[in-house]
Every structure is written in C-alpha cells, then in structure tokens.
C-alpha cells in the first residue's frame, strides 16, 4: 500500500510539472498564433512581462522564439 501511495504521488507531481511547462511554452503564450509574443500576451506570465523589454533585443515590441528562449522564468 505504501508503494502505491508513493507511485501515485510521483505520478501526480510529474503531471503537475508537465502542465506547468506546457503553460509557459512559446506556443501557449502566442495566443494569436502570429509567431511572436506581444507585451499583451506576456501578461499571462508575470515573470515574462517583467523581463519583456530586456528580452526584446530588436525593439519591435514582440518576442520571437529565439528571444523567448533567453527567458529565465
């Protein structure tokens, strides 16, 4: 019984981790599907919004996939 509880707990924790990563992925944040994350779209992830201006290295007001990859959230 103890092993079942441990296995179930590990499964739940693993699922939570996957959901957390999926929720912060580039595609999930790019809600309009234009291939970039706008400042408005970044509001879904406050840590990303806080770093937005630093990450937007070309200054076009959007984060490309390569700019987003430098996000440390």
TrEMBL record:
Alphabetized PROSITE patterns for the sequence: EF_HAND_1 (PS00018), EF_HAND_2 (PS50222)
A Pfam family that the UniProt record links to this protein: EF-hand_5
Signal peptide: 1-22
Keyword Kinase attributed: no
Record GO terms (molecular function): calcium ion binding
UniProt key word Signal: yes
InterPro entries in the record: EF-hand-dom_pair, EF_Hand_1_Ca_BS, EF_hand_dom
EF-hand domain boundaries: 43-73
Keywords in alphabetical order: Signal
Protein name per the record: Calmodulin
Species of origin: Pseudoalteromonas amylolytica
């Amino acid at each position: 019984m103890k092993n079942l509880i441990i296995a179930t707990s590990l499964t739940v924790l693993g699922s939570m981790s996957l959901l957390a990563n999926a929720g912060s992925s580039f595609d999930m944040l790019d809600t309009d599907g234009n291939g970039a994350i706008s400042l408005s779209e970044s509001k879904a992830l406050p840590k990303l919004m806080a770093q937005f201006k630093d990450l937007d290295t070309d200054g076009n007001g959007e984060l490309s996939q390569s700019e987003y990859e430098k996000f440390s959230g």
